[in-house]
Write a structure and sequence with these properties.
By secondary structure, the chain is α/β, with parallel strands linked by helices. The chain contains 8 helices and 11 strands.
């Protein structure tokens, strides 16, 4: 039976692909204050601005390509049972070929109902040819169509399935997240005792004594991890 490797990836995973995510220290996402374009209050205040922001970001995403680190994770599926838990809203893991990805903070390529974002009847997948949402467009339930993103302050419905995956890991690998963004950072607590935990990040992270740190970016760090495994 293949060993189960569970990855937890954050903003640092997508940086090499030129795709920033909004967990930066400066509180800005693509030069917008986070509360303006990634909070429920921001959405209520100006849905047109928020809709147009995500249209622009989506157009940028279609051109973004997975980095070598994304590809190396996908290639591990040949030898391991691999699950990716990601805080990122991009689809770069999927583009690289990963077949099992759980998005904790939503997906940029989808839109949903404002009343109930997780009602599957109203979640729509957008394509490069049909990418922009016209402000004011309604979902099937009559509410405004909004980005399928977990805004700040909202609950994280995919946390439970992610915790289950973490609890079954033989090896747990954290890439490009500083472990300060909760609730995602709490997933480490579900990893079985004795399972090795690796942390790939170019910056020193205070992650506790049982974590093996690889102080490199996503791609170089993945190469080193594969040597260690």
């Amino acid at each position: 039976m293949k060993k189960k490797v569970v990855f937890l990836t954050g903003a640092g995973m997508s940086v090499e692909s030129g795709f920033k995510t909004f967990r930066g220290n400066d509180g800005l996402w693509e030069n917008y204050p986070v509360e303006q374009i990634a909070s429920h209050e921001g959405w209520e205040r100006d849905p047109k601005l928020v809709t147009e922001f995500y249209n622009k970001l989506r157009r940028k995403l279609w051109d973004a390509q997975p980095c070598e680190g994304h590809k190396l994770i996908a290639e591990m599926e040949k030898d391991y049972d691999v699950t990716v838990l990601t805080q990122n809203v991009d689809n770069l893991h999927e583009k690289a070929g990963s077949s099992k990805v759980i998005h904790l903070h939503g997906e940029l390529t989808k839109v949903c109902s404002s009343n109930d974002p997780y009602d599957p009847r109203y979640i729509q997948e957008l394509t490069p040819e049909n990418s922009d949402v016209k402000p004011g467009t309604k979902a099937g339930d009559g509410s405004l169509l909004r980005p399928f993103i977990v805004f700040f302050g909202e609950s994280v419905p995919m946390l439970e399935p992610a915790a289950k995956e973490a609890s079954e890991a033989d090896i747990f690998v954290i890439i490009g997240t500083s472990l300060v963004v909760y609730p995602a950072a709490g997933l480490v607590q579900f990893v079985p005792k004795g399972a090795p935990i690796y942390l790939i990040d170019p910056n020193p992270v205070n992650a506790g004594g049982n974590v093996i740190q690889i102080q490199k970016g996503a791609s170089e760090g993945m190469k080193e991890l594969l040597k260690k495994l």
